[in-house]
Specification:
Order of helices and strands: EEEHHEEE
Shape: globular
Number of strands: 6
Bound molecules: zinc ion
Oligomer: single chain
Helix content: 10-25%
Number of domains: 1
Number of helices: 2
């Protein structure tokens, strides 16, 4: 199992913000990769599919946003 930080591109400022969510995956990507790419040819685990429903906090505008584009949600290996 590998642990990943989940980050999402911001709809407001365009930066990549951490969601504060960590996930552990078997067979996940070795380096930073979008969930769209990481699960291109397979069904994503429930925990990954649910990321599109999460709200992400933008520290620049001080509001939350939803990022539903799998190409803009990234898994970043920890450690
Ligand atoms: Zn932002």
């Amino acid at each position: 199992m590998a642990m990943y930080n989940v980050c999402a591109v911001c709809n407001a400022c365009g930066d990549l913000h951490t969601t504060g969510i960590t996930v552990s995956l078997n067979g996940g990507p070795a380096s930073k990769q979008s969930i769209e790419e990481a699960f291109a040819n397979k069904d994503p685990p429930t925990i990954i599919a649910e990321l599109k429903e999460k709200r992400v906090h933008c520290p620049k505008i001080g509001r939350q946003y939803a990022q539903r584009d799998g190409k803009k949600i990234f898994l970043i290996p920890m450690g």
